[in-house]
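Translate sequence into structure tokens.
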Amino acid sequence: MNTTAKLTFLILLLFPAILLAADDTKERSSAVILINPNAELQGPPTWSNLNDNTPSTTVRSFEEALDLYRTAKKEYGAVAILAYPGVYRINEPLILSQNGLPLTVATVLKGNDIHISNTLEQVPPGEKVTISGGKPITNWREENGRWVADLPEVRENKWSFRQIWVDNPGQPSQLRNRASLPKEGFYRVAGCPEGVPSQVNYHKDCQSFEYADGDINPNWHNLDDVEVIVYHFWTDSHLPIQSIDTDKRIVTFKHKAGKTFTDDFSDDGARYVVENVFEALEKPGEWYLDKKAGKIYYIPMPGEIINETEILAPVANSLVRIEGDPRNGQFVENIHFKNIGFEHTNFELPVGNSNDPQGSSSVTAAIRMKGAKNCSFERCAIRNLGTTAFELGEGCTGNVFSDNAIADVAACAFRINGGGSGAPPVLRTKNNRIEYNEIARYGITYPSAVGILLQNTEGNRVAHNHVHHGWYTGVSIGWTWGYSRSISRDNVIEFNHIHDIVQVLLSE
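Result follows.
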């Protein structure tokens, strides 16, 4: 079956469901918006009929498709947005909202369906639709065996990132490591001048520790760019250096960590590493970002060819935002993504945040939902993220996540959280389903992250998922300490295969 035949088949397959769902738009026709980045178009989009007399038009990007849906909503009911295979790069997230105000894209009418899918029902290898928040780095030059590229936006404090991925032909994107120390294992905190658990409450905010001789060097290039990551208790603290007292070997950070600098409730010093150190740039596959000079350095792997190997850095902090306003009774409903890839997101901890919240719950997500009802993501591939994958916030109900492949994410795969026991009922998040997904290699940047984190939420079903190779918990439920009222109830966790987790990096 050729591509055109497959496309026609998919449209015919989708539309019975679409027409049935649009109960309040029976008098209006349904439509197809095709996204073809290579289409030769002149003037504004024009509508014509497909073989089954379904209105259709073609645009070049997801942004154009969503804008067109917004303007066409009065004439057409349910809409299928079908994208031709390719990589669609975005710098800002695609916004689907009830009132159309947050940014620039789509208004979704209550009761209508919008289906966003690949043009091919069965996607052959290599024929994928991918929404990417990554930006290729170009104009590399070679200096002393390293590749170097200028990044003016970094120098001007308009861009910063902590991941890069390399795309080699025929291979998936691969994460490359920031130049770090030690080269193997960990350093150990030598002393805790602000106290240890036998002296103070383990939850004391601490801002400094004593390091062993030679472990931290005040003469490192651009000390402001260096990040110390401490693994203690069940959190990973990410700490920029403020000052170093070489006489006492005390390093002080720009903000505090939320616990003492010990492994756990013992008085033993915590393990830590130091990342983004120029002097540590030694091995193939390592890279360093010089923020002050606006330069990136990379040591290529064997076989990589300068300016032929694609190297991506993330720009967009999220890829899709489905935004209702549940407090005012406005919900976004019936958005259905199928066979779409989502890759490359950017996240930097806000100033003052060392990643203290349990489960890395303050890390934002690639796909963020609020006030979303009866939406779905099916057979999507979500990978290579500097963030969490999915975040369901207040007022999200009846959403389904099925048969997705989620891998190589910086924090959680799913985080679901709504209004607590004191919040208005309309802010409750409940009755969502996470089923038949594979979740692999999560928490790769923030190892305290959880595969599936259910916070203030109820009535969800987490079933038949394969969760593996995470640094910490596979599934975690509940968010209230003590015996006060919690709305975390009636959640069903069943038939999940969970293995190779809690890999002895943090306290169990």
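Note: The CA atoms of residues 382 and 406 lie 5 Å apart.
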